[in-house]
Design brief:
Structural class: alpha+beta
Distance between the termini: 19 Å
Radius of gyration: 15 Å
Shape: globular
Number of strands: 6
Helix content: 25-40%
Order of helices and strands: HHEEEEHEEH
């Protein structure tokens, strides 16, 4: 897939999150309610699942830190990154100001500021598939959030 096609998928997924939120799907859930603020990790996990299930696009959960901030985005197989929560930094000044709601492309100056905290982790069906002991609490929360979002993907 091209970066433009990935951008369209990412934009569609972000739009579905916003629609679900407006319709109260995440009211007081303590999970996605404040999207995009503080949601980069969970949202990247869910977006990675969407990419894999609907477009057969592999992605890696990429976690970075500065001295005072942390952020998560997806890295794709061909090296592009995808970030649908970067605009949570729109009220910042200086180098940490970032106001793009959806970014797909090569790593930019904003994302380069974050020192990677370990190797990126591939998002696979193991992330959401219960094992022989059943569904974990976090898997359940992710599944419910994903199902709510998917109701709004058009």
């Amino acid at each position: 897939m091209t970066d433009n096609e990935i951008f369209q998928l990412a934009e569609k997924f972000r739009s579905a999150i916003l629609k679900a939120n407006v319709n109260g799907e995440f009211f007081r859930d303590g999970f996605i309610e404040l999207f995009p603020r503080g949601n980069c990790g969970i949202v990247c996990n869910l977006l990675g699942r969407y990419f894999l299930e609907y477009a057969d696009v592999r992605s890696w959960y990429t976690f970075g830190e500065t001295k005072s901030e942390s952020h998560v985005w997806l890295t794709l197989e061909k090296g592009s990154i995808v970030d649908i929560t970067g605009d949570q930094y729109s009220n910042r000044t200086g180098a940490l100001h970032y106001d793009l709601p959806v970014y797909v492309g090569q790593i930019d100056a904003f994302h380069k500021q974050f020192r990677l905290n370990g190797e990126p982790l591939e998002i696979t069906p193991d992330d959401w598939t219960p094992d022989f002991l059943g569904e974990t609490g976090i898997q359940r929360k992710k599944r419910i959030a994903y199902e709510k979002i998917m109701k709004y993907v058009d």
